[in-house]
From TrEMBL:
Domain of life: Bacteria
Name of protein: Helix-turn-helix domain-containing protein
PANTHER family, A to Z: BLL4672 PROTEIN-RELATED (PTHR35010), BLL5781 PROTEIN (PTHR35010:SF4)
Species this protein is from: Streptomyces camelliae
SMART domains associated with the record: HTH_XRE
Pfam families: HTH_3, MLTR_LBD
InterPro entries in alphabetical order: Cro/C1-type_HTH, Lambda_DNA-bd_dom_sf, MLTR_LBD
Length: 266
């Protein structure tokens, strides 16, 4: 098998971004000829040029490290385990954010959409779902789309699943993560899941609400919630760059009352 070069990686990402050599080269301040030579393997790019190209194409930090390694350079961005003492301050701040959001569900998820931190409301939301369904650690896509998970309790499953499947499709394209690819392949086999090739075109349009709400039955009551996603603005660590905070908010007064009631009597 022919080894994949950094030129191959650049050309592939440039193609996915639908950028011409001339456009990309001018954007980072090098000649199109130089970029062409880099992609063909006739010229070895400097670390600065590689990082500039990666930044211009909005590559994740993990992939930037892969490019540097492929070109024979040391990785530039550290990857620290979330449980490491070096991230204890960040971890504590994230947990405080989630706890302050209680009694509404919230979670910190990684690039594979595995739950890394959550609050009590988040744990109540998935209570009773078997571990083999949720995954270890709990995975948002598995839990929400599995027929023995939250799918059977979701009252607007066609619209909500379309939203999730589009997100999964984008995550697969963006990261090329083998675990996400395998998960997408598995999800395709589940009931009420459309053909994998259609995921990027699925639509949740048609709702009267200003934002798409998730309508799910919890404890015999139908709750309606919408979500907000946030990420670190200036991450310099691979782990932190791949974390995202998802906070659920009640979409109506009845849901807010029910969530507060569940928290009070749990």
């Amino acid at each position: 098998m022919t080894a994949v070069t950094v030129g191959d990686l650049i050309r592939r990402r440039r193609g996915l971004a639908r950028r011409s050599q001339m456009d990309l080269a001018h954007g980072i301040g090098i000649s199109p000829r130089h970029l062409s030579f880099v992609e063909l393997g006739k010229s070895r790019p400097s670390p600065g040029v590689l990082v500039a190209i990666a930044r211009h194409l909005d590559l994740p930090l993990r992939e930037r490290n892969d490019w540097l390694l492929a070109a024979g350079y040391a990785p530039r961005y550290p990857e620290t385990a979330l449980a490491d003492s070096g991230l204890s301050g960040v971890r504590a701040s994230l947990q405080r954010l989630l706890d302050a959001h209680d009694p509404f569900p919230g979670a910190v998820i990684d690039r594979q959409w595995n739950v890394r931190l959550t609050n009590e409301a988040g744990r109540r939301l998935v209570s009773g779902i078997p571990e083999e369904v949720r995954g270890v650690p709990t995975n948002i896509f598995r839990t929400a789309l599995h027929p023995d998970g939250l799918a059977r309790r979701t009252r607007n499953f066609p619209e909500w699943s379309a939203h999730l499947l589009r997100r999964l499709d984008r995550a697969v394209v963006r990261t090329q993560d083998p675990a996400l690819v395998a998960l997408a392949d598995e999800i395709t086999t589940w009931p009420a899941i459309p053909d994998r090739r259609t995921w990027s075109r699925l639509s949740s349009d048609g709702a009267d609400d200003p934002v798409l709400s998730w309508r799910v039955e919890v404890g015999g009551e139908e709750l309606s919630m919408f979500t907000m996603m946030s990420a670190f603005g200036t991450p310099a660590d691979v782990t932190l760059s791949e974390l995202c905070v998802e906070l659920f908010f009640p979409a109506d007064r009845a849901t807010e009352t029910a969530l507060r009631h569940h928290a009070e009597f749990s």
